[in-house]
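Q: what does this look like with flavin-adenine dinucleotide bound?
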Amino acid sequence: MRKRVLIVGGGTAGWLTAGYLAKRLGADLADGVAITLVESRDIGVLGVGEGTFPTIRRTLATIGVDEAELVRRCGATFKQGARFVHWQRAPGTPGRDHYMHPFQVAEAPGGLELLPYWLSGAAGDAEWDEVSTPQKAAADAARAPKLPTHPDYLGPLNYAFHFDAVALAGLLRERAVANGVTHLIDTVTHVALADSGAIERVDTERHGTLTADLYVDCTGFRAELIGKAMGVPFRSCRDVLFCDRALAAQLPYETADAPIASQTISTAQEAGWIWDIGLDRRRGIGHVYSSNHSDDTAAERALRRYLGPRGKQAEVRRFRFEAGFREVNWRRNCVAVGLSSGFFEPLEATGIAFAEVSAAMIANLFPWSGDHETSARQFNANLLRRYERALDFIKLHYCLSERRDTDFWRDNVADTSNTASLLELLDRWRHRWPNELDIDPQVDIFTEASWQYVLYGMGWRTDLSARAGALRYRDDARRAFGEVRRQVGVALANLPTHRALVEAAQRRG
Ligand code: FAD
């Protein structure tokens, strides 16, 4: 008999998982897995989640979404990384006011590692994000990461997307259904457990009882299956990541040909930060903040100040959340994906990235033989480490700040709000730079390049004086830094504007 998967929830996580599993587990094949997704019409989707990580390209390609169609249908634009403004220093303080976490990794001829040479001054006063790749210069000039003639999901500069999350869920739904997923619109009213603790069935308002071999909880923060029915606890990380509220608004461009930013702009505030994401016809702007350090009125005032006079009438949506995750995400025959599994503030777009990882792991560990426990053990151990590592990476953006202007920043830099594992990493990096030994590719979403960009963007200095004499390729490194400067010129001369790439893709899609 065919194995059956029931996905409860039709937000980004639900449809992404459905579309992905449909392809990987053969939902349209007689001997493949039968996949049903049930979503409630009465319980809305979150509908935010506009920034992604480069892994999304492979996920979308697997699901069968074309890049041009994504751009046309979902207002999608090309994201080359994130620009962090006022994270290191408060406004009005002398010194650099921003840095970038680009997606492009530094590459020098002959595999020479440039970072130690930059650390020991071979690039003069230039910052690491400027001399390691031409991507910052391209993104700052609102250039595209590729030409319209490059193939789908490939380009000379690494990229992800920004998109309208509601439109994306619609496109993914279409693909998933075309790939064999059965779609039910209904509300799950009860989840019944067997004596073993496994889910026996779910009851719905209109389709009666539904049963499956594997239940996927994509019900968002409600966590109807894994949380409410199975009682799997949630581990709060609020003592590390303080933000627990968000306000989101939309702002149309002033003119139809206004430049579109090709990076998420994240501007630190007194008690949080504001995201600014350029889609094709509008910007999505939101304020993420800590309710322990601010209140809703002050937070909205800061958002409206950022939006400016044109945002006076903008409608503001409100969200509450708690940073954290479940240590067990696969119990018996139930696995959680998306917000039901965990959530960190959207600083590095980890929400959708975690849903991608979880969907891929479910496909790889699918219990064809019926042995859920073996799959669950591996899934849980892996995801737990991923959450812990991502938590440290997000906290890294805060803990090195020189800001002391508010309690939010003072509390963020206090050792008591940092994890022991992050303090241990920082200890390592006093005298050596982050390298591949600090990274486990099986659990780290962020590579050593990402850690380096944030660490040095926030002004950390690794002292290499003891080994300065062993850095023998200084001249090669200087030439390589010169080569990056040359590439900046080539990129600015040849890459189209970001808007031109988006419009070319819209015409194709
Ligand atoms: P939801 O969107 O909440 O969907 C839940 C689904 O479950 C709905 O379809 C609902 O109808 C259904 N449901 C619930 N209960 C039942 C029931 N009883 N019966 C049937 N159906 C039910 N992530 C990023 O990667 N990048 C970002 O830039 C980003 N920005 C964010 C900004 C904010 C302010 C917040 C709060 C989150 C952000 N995220 C971001 C996270 C991202 O929004 C989520 O990861 C993503 O939307 C997935 O949500 P979901 O599908 O898990 O849940």
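The first helix runs from residue 12 to 25. The longest strand covers residues 245-252.
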